[in-house]
């Protein structure tokens, strides 16, 4: 049902307050769910409540639609079905990161009791680690269906939208981590955060440790490996090549689940 009717589920951003400037792209919407048609958003929220039991499926969307009293012919029907639901999950969880940042206390942190000997790069990586873990925790309620969602996202016809969402998340993480320079490091860090996050989601799907502790360790070790690799690479071309190879390997690992 959800693949046969086209609709305009998402409107163009209209509120300047929800847009944030980044170096890698001109504007990115930090509150993307506000740009959905209100009734469509209500349908997606209702369907997300069913995802833990039904997965990212047409069944979840159909049942949510019936519970809300929507008819099969309503223009609120989502054309891509499960993919629309997955993308909504990605945007809603990214929005939570942005909202948490905007509502954080303005009071300065307490002075450290011990000297901080970390380099600037180490501090940025530690901040990225916390943000990646925070975002990954948003997958816990739907963890039983995450592997199927990832498999659908990496299908060729869905790659452009999937990579766009991954890039938007990486921008949000790097920005919140405190990276403000406009040099080449912004782009390399964004690319590496994308690779680390994507690999961490794959790892999380297979993680049986208590409270996903192994996944959080995997994130940390991956960031440390990224930093070591970057420091050991002699030129920009080599670094970009390494990032490209890492991204391809992540995508290939996801494709094996299809």
UniProtKB/TrEMBL annotation:
It is found in: Mitochondrion. It holds the Pfam family COQ9. InterPro entries: COQ9_C, Ubiq_biosynth_COQ9. GO terms for cellular component: mitochondrial inner membrane. Keywords: Lipid-binding, Mitochondrion, Transit peptide, Ubiquinone biosynthesis. It comes from Yarrowia lipolytica (strain CLIB 122 / E 150). Residues 99-118 are annotated as: Disordered. One of its GO terms (molecular function) is lipid binding. The keyword Manganese does not apply. This is Ubiquinone biosynthesis protein. Belongs to the COQ9 family.
